[in-house]
User: Which sequence fits this backbone?
């Protein structure tokens, strides 16, 4: 079993040295906080992760929840960790004081999520609860808040998000669940939802569903969707007619039950409580989507992190063969496989993906915090635009590249990686859902190119270019970084050219063609943004090396950061060439024509 | 459950129209064969695949073999299919008549393997048996042949390859199993082997291990390795002291038991029979390696094939959302997801990988046949060089790109792809071992760049360039193909430039640096070779369209071939740009230096 799943030194570097989380405490919302409160919270999460989560990685995977006689039983360890997280105030740490939170910046709670999820992503119950409670906190009546939030963020009640329906999938405009107004202001709910994570289980006393449906007579499409709170048990303890109709057996993340739920299916007696105004449900959902998507990005980065540290540990210990220049020295001892260039390359890739993703997630989280907490309207607007632009990337890159990174982790283990004797085969399975749920990569990519890039007249991309420009300027100060600064600048120009080309197509009104290769555009854009994060890290490492050159551990740490930045520019960035070629290419091959190509 | 796992029309196209398998029957070895005997054999395999294999895909995965009281029990369906394949003469169909085979060309038996493996890759027992029996047929004494081959190719006895040891992994020079000569000419064997596929089970009466070890006093390294036959039960029925010490629980291919075996572990009474001469064992193995590696390539292509047809079927049936240009037509019916460009792109990728891989595998198999059967020494030498050059690619591309293709198949299914309700999650697991066993991708890549490209003064690459040139010339005849012909020519030049650059490094004697990015070189080389295979298919499709323009099914089929060729050139080939950039790049980042970068 691997011993590590994250690196505390790296967390400190990213949180404090690169993204300067302490500066957030200048804002009134976070004024009670300082590095000590952040560290205490991180330590509390680490304790729980080390003691109550990481030891159960395999066990939770092996004993997946089952549905029997209408009841879902999950691994008993889940109850313990929910209790511990709730008691430590970690589930709603970033909630407002008035809702029982600690007003912790999301920049810090993203790190909590990273630590917990890399310890055991099969125990991802609390993120779901927090997301659901946050919807109530943001848009619910005081009564709904008082009734539900305290029991949710204390870990006593589970929260869920009930969006997907069997016939609609990602197409939320096609959902058909109905809500019929009752005289007392509540609604009678009928419908079915699928893939509801943590949709039912026995580790909490109640399950609170945040549910979208149509009030009878509502307009077609997304403008007729309303949001409801639907508890499994009503407050008086009576059953609210939410039925567990099925449980999915899945490739990974087996600890978390994914449910097929029926509402009003048994006795036509399922009551829902409207959140906010009618027909605004999807609007509310969208306002919560950035956090949910950042959360999935963190999941991807976390699973890849656990796999990377397992592979790194193995590669440092496992002897095999000799250096390629010394193949024939048969009596020489075998070397550790990390010394083989091909293995080293795969480890550098994993490190580049994990640490680059985490840096991007913190960058995005910090814009989230500033968009919430800044008093300066200009800074607030900028933060909001950057958050909107970066969110689909922060959701997608850690998951898509995380999958590749974990595949390389498996490869580092050779045949052993394919066996259950080592943990990576599980991580390989677990991460596969992340580019699907909370908006597939295809949907994130359409969001990036179709909405985020053009929004506000392209202002967000301009702001991003300015930020990248600052990092380029800083990097140009150091001889060793100069070529990478220039490379990043050049990559920005290449991306700009592709963007202009695509917006030209959008200008013709052919949306389908404009967006047809959005997924490739996403990859190109992501590589740019992550290269920026790596150069940013390298600049800080350079600065620190000047002052910390007497601490051998620090020197090693910072030099490794610069080395990994170089890896990213020399091995990953060249991929943008081919992507740009395709994206500028006029040949249309994937759009349905009158004369359809049969496959 | 999916209904299809391969496409017969495509098999006919590749086998007869593109690779002209019938021309092989001009050679004496295959003189008894013709299209009818090929078709009959393919039909026989299809019957078995349809009736005895495909129906058990999930069941074999769910009921993986267990080791209890020293015995391994496999799924009962395995015994039935072994019997059926053995009785139909399909296990050793390509063996010489004198060894009980039908002297079927490997070009045809590769198709048999493809059909069987895409039906159910968890039943891959016979390929292992054939490989082991082939070693005996090629290098064993008449007595060994008579004793073992008939029972093996009739499916009564299982064959295995026992190479890997726990302390050595891929480094065969470090194996330590020993063989002590006994007075009767046999050897007393001691040692342990790991990851032995089909290493023990109850679906056959005996298990025949082809085993490498060192005769006492043999030289160090690979030059001291000898090959032995070690039966589980001796011919007189007594136990030969081969112990099942452990069974691996694996990510995929769960139907096939992977064993940890002890030889002479119980009573120091394990007898081995030397194959051929002492110390030539690895040599013998190497001479069989091309077939084994082609076999793994077929496995990769087969699993990807099964996943592709499942995804294609789903994408044609599943309605979701509307066309991007008609997003707001809310009362319009939903469209089938194959009509979404992003889904179509993923399906084209899968098709391009599956059919491109299969074409490459047939090309390689045909060179195998010609290297065996040609009477013309020049043709024979050419075939041998082409076989040597293409084999590492034919092993690697179908597995590496097959993994990506299956990941896209999962994505086409959305959330359902992650569940056990559909077959793709299993294929996603099953294929993950293929870039590891029978020589990892790293090792194949070093073989390609380090041995195959420079061999015979670069003659093989020259021959390949000639063959590609022929396809380019043929394609230039058609207006629609012209730009792709020119593109392939240009890609060949790009590859040539990179190769020269790398050989320049080899010339300095720095082998480690020469080979440090061999895996990237493999990807670039593979993309070239598969683009060639696609252009070759497109040329044939063009030719056929001229004569078959009145058959609507044929027209659709051939046009889809040309369309997929275009996909490959427009979406996959641009990747070579970034690969070339990296491969020409002087910056060394993965080679151990005195001042090691700590990770």
Assistant:
């Amino acid at each position: 079993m691997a011993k590590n799943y994250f690196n505390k030194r790296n967390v400190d570097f990213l949180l404090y040295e690169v993204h300067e989380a302490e500066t957030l405490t200048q804002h009134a919302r976070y004024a009670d906080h300082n590095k000590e409160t952040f560290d205490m919270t991180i330590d509390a999460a680490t304790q729980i992760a080390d003691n109550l989560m990481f030891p159960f990685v395999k066990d939770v995977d092996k004993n997946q929840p089952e549905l029997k006689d209408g009841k879902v039983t999950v691994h008993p360890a889940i109850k313990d960790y929910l209790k511990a997280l709730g008691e430590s105030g970690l589930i709603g740490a970033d909630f407002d004081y008035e809702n029982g939170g600690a007003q912790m910046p999301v920049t810090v709670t993203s790190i909590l999520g990273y630590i917990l999820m890399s310890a055991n992503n099969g125990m991802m119950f609390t993120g779901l609860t927090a997301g659901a409670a946050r919807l109530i906190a943001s848009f619910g009546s005081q009564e709904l808040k008082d009734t539900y939030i305290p029991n949710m963020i204390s870990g006593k009640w589970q929260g869920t998000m009930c969006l997907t329906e069997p016939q609609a999938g990602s197409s939320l405009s096609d959902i058909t669940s109905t809500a019929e107004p009752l005289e007392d202001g509540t609604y009678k709910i009928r419908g079915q939802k699928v893939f509801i994570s943590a949709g039912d289980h026995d580790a909490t006393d109640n399950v609170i569903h945040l549910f979208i449906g149509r009030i009878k007579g509502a307009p077609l499409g997304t403008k007729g969707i309303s949001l409801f709170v639907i508890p499994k048990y009503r407050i008086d303890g009576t059953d609210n007619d939410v039925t567990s109709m099925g449980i999915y057996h899945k490739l990974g993340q087996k600890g978390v039950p994914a449910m097929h739920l029926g509402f009003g299916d048994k006795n036509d007696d399922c009551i829902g409580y409207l959140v906010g105004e009618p027909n605004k449900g999807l609007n509310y959902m969208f306002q919560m989507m950035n956090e949910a998507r950042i959360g999935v990005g963190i999941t991807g980065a976390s699973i890849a992190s656990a796999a990377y540290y397992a592979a790194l540990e193995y590669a440092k210990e496992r002897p095999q063969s000799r250096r390629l220049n010394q193949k024939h020295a048969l009596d020489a001892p075998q070397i550790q496989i990390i010394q083989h260039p091909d293995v080293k390359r795969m480890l550098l890739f994993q490190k580049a993906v994990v640490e680059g993703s985490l840096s991007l997630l913190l960058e995005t989280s910090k814009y989230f915090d500033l968009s919430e907490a800044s008093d300066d309207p200009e800074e607030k607007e900028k933060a909001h635009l950057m958050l909107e632009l970066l969110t689909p990337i922060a959701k997608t890159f850690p998951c898509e590249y995380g999958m590749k990174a974990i595949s390389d982790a498996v490869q580092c283990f050779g045949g052993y990686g394919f066996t259950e004797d080592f943990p990576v085969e599980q991580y390989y399975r677990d991460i596969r859902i992340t580019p699907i749920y909370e908006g597939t990569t295809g949907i994130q990519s359409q969001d990036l190119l179709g909405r985020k890039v053009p929004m506000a007249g392209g202002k967000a991309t301009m702001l991003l270019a300015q930020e990248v420009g600052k990092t380029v300027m800083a990097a140009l100060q150091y001889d060793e970084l100069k070529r990478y600064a220039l490379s990043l600048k050049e990559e920005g120009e290449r991306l700009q050219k592709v963007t202009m080309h695509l917006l030209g197509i959008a200008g013709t009104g052919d949306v389908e063609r404009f967006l047809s290769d959005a997924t490739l555009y996403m990859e190109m854009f992501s590589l740019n943004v992550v290269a920026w994060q790596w150069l940013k890290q390298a600049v800080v490492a350079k600065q620190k090396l000047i002052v910390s050159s007497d601490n051998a551990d620090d020197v090693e740490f910072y030099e490794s950061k610069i080395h990994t930045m170089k890896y990213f520019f020399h091995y990953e960035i060249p991929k943008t060439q081919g992507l740009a070629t395709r994206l500028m290419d006029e040949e249309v091959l994937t759009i349905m024509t009158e004369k359809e190509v049969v496959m």
User: Anything to note?
Assistant: Chain A has a mean pLDDT of 95. The longest helix of chain A spans residues 281-317. Chain A touches chain B through 101 residues (CB under 8 Å). Residues 441-585 of chain A form one domain.
